Q: What sequence folds into this?
């Protein structure tokens, strides 16, 4: 595959044109990835202001009392997505569901404590402690290679 980038100040936003002899799986995958880029934006509400949340800054996302919250080093934000919708938007190599009500950023984990039988205790970079529910333990162990 060849990639060509042309700079033109008349374009206010990027425009992507794909030139191909036929539709291939590679082209279909590329189109799918490109179309999901804009849908990966996650916004949160804090102090009556909406902020765009950087996925790399997210520490944990959890549901409580019918509402969803995202935790970053800058505090906690209310999010207007359901957890399953956020799972689809988040990078699956970086985020993992650890219970019915929580998703964590693996890059923000300080350590995993396996000493508790049947579950895993997780200490996050912000000092929060959370637990993997029994249902998700096997999935996490597979990702960790244990």
A:
């Amino acid at each position: 595959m060849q990639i060509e980038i042309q700079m033109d100040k008349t374009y206010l936003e990027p425009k992507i044109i794909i030139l191909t002899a036929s539709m291939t799986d590679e082209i279909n995958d590329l189109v799918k990835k490109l179309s999901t880029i804009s849908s990966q934006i996650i916004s949160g509400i804090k102090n009556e202001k909406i902020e765009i949340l950087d996925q790399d800054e997210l520490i944990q996302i959890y549901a409580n009392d019918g509402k969803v919250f995202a935790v970053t080093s800058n505090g906690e934000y209310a999010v207007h997505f359901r957890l399953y919708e956020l799972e689809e938007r988040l990078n699956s190599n970086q985020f993992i569901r650890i219970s019915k009500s929580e998703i964590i950023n693996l890059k923000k984990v300080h350590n995993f404590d396996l000493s508790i039988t049947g579950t895993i205790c997780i200490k996050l970079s912000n000092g929060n402690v959370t637990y993997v529910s029994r249902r998700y333990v096997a999935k996490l162990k597979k990702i960790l290679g244990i």
Q: What stands out?
A: Residues 38-144 form a domain with the OB fold (Dihydrolipoamide Acetyltransferase, E2P) fold (CATH 2.40.50.1020). The chain is about 20% helix and 35% strand. The chain has one domain: 38-144. The mean pLDDT is 89.
